[in-house]
Amino acid sequence: MAKCGRKQHDRAVCLYITYERCAADAIRELGYPSRGALRMWCKDRLK
After folding, report:
1. Dihedral pair phi/psi, residue 24, rounded to 5°
2. pLDDT value at position 46?
3. Could you tell me which residues come within 8 angstroms of residue 13 by beta carbon, excluding any fewer than 6 positions away?
4. Could you tell me the residue ranges of all domains in the chain?
5. pLDDT in tens, 1-47
6. How far apart are CA 9 and CA 32, in angstroms?
7. How far is it, in rounded angstroms, from Cα 28 to Cα 45?
8. What pLDDT does 22 receive?
9. pLDDT reported for residue 2
10. 13 and 33 Cβ atoms separated by less than 8 Å
11. Exposed, middle or buried by CB within 10 Å (0-12, 13-18, 19+), for 47?
């Protein structure tokens, strides 16, 4: 499994929020991460 950098995390979280918290749409556009990872990144960023 490839590791993603902080910028990639931020981009994924921004898309997740832009797509009204629809993980499938954000993952489809980016090609990564898993649904669980995206939710974890979002939780960490929004703390």
Report:
1. -60, -40
2. 81
3. 38, 41, 42, 45, 46
4. 6-45
5. 457 788 999 999 999 999 999 999 999 999 999 999 999 999 998 88
6. 10
7. 21
8. 94
9. 59
10. no
11. exposed
Q: Kindly report the three-state secondary structure assignment for every residue of the chain.
A: CCCCCHHHHHHHHHHHHHCCCCHHHHHHHHCCCCHHHHHHHHHHHCC
Write down the residue that tokens 């931020």 correspond to. 10
Token pair for residue 46? Answer: 């929004």
Amino acid occupying residue 7 = K
Question: To 10 degrees, the CA torsion angle through 30, 20, 17, 32?
Answer: -20
Amino acid, single-letter form, for residue 15: L
